[in-house]
Structures are given as structure tokens and as C-alpha cells.
Amino acid sequence: VKCLLEQLWELGLDFDDAVLQRVRQNWLEWCAEVETLKSFSLKRTLFSNYDVNEIEIHVFADSSTKAYGAVAYIRHKRTFEVQFVLSKTRVAPVKKLTLPRLEFLGHLSRLA
Length: 112
Fold this sequence. Notes:
The protein is α+β, with helices and mostly antiparallel strands. The protein contains three helices and three strands. The chain is 30% helix and 26% strand. Strand 2 and strand 3 form a beta hairpin. It starts with a helix and ends in a 5-residue tail after the last helix. The relative contact order is 0.16.
């Protein structure tokens, strides 16, 4: 959604202007994808039965020309069980930056 809003902003449309067909199509596709989230669930507990010394935290960051972000997982050393903890995403700035710079911003996304 953030990328779609940025597209609209870059087009410089007024509030009452009609949006382009491709932007409208992207919006409708996103709305259809949101419906699938109704069946999505995450565990609320994170390895409650394990010793803290047996847990590892893994953080990954990545970027593209449109967005950047980071994600964190925890992993149990003995069982190799992995669980998602959290993630952060940001839309890339309108001012074009190099991919290494965007990856660096992913590391600084207040997660990594």
C-alpha cells in the first residue's frame, strides 16, 4: 500500500483526479490479497519451555529499488526450531539511492 501511495504522489494527482488504470488494478489486486490474511495466524509464545541460553536471534535485511526492510527470527540451538519475531519495512525514498545504500538503510530500520 505504501508503494501505491507513493506512485500516486509521484503522479501529482489532485484529490478529485481519476487514477491511472494500472494503479487502480494494483489497488484491486492488493485488496484481494488482504482477504487471504483472514486465515493467517502467528504463535504468540516464543519458546516458553527453553532455556534462554539455547536461543539464537537471527536478523536479515534486504532492499530493492522500491523498498527496504529487516526481519528477525529466533532459533533454538538443539531442535533447530525457528520462529518469526518481527519485521520492519520502509518505502525507498523518492530521491533515488544506490542499492548498497538502501541495504544499509534496511540494517538501520530500528530492528537490526
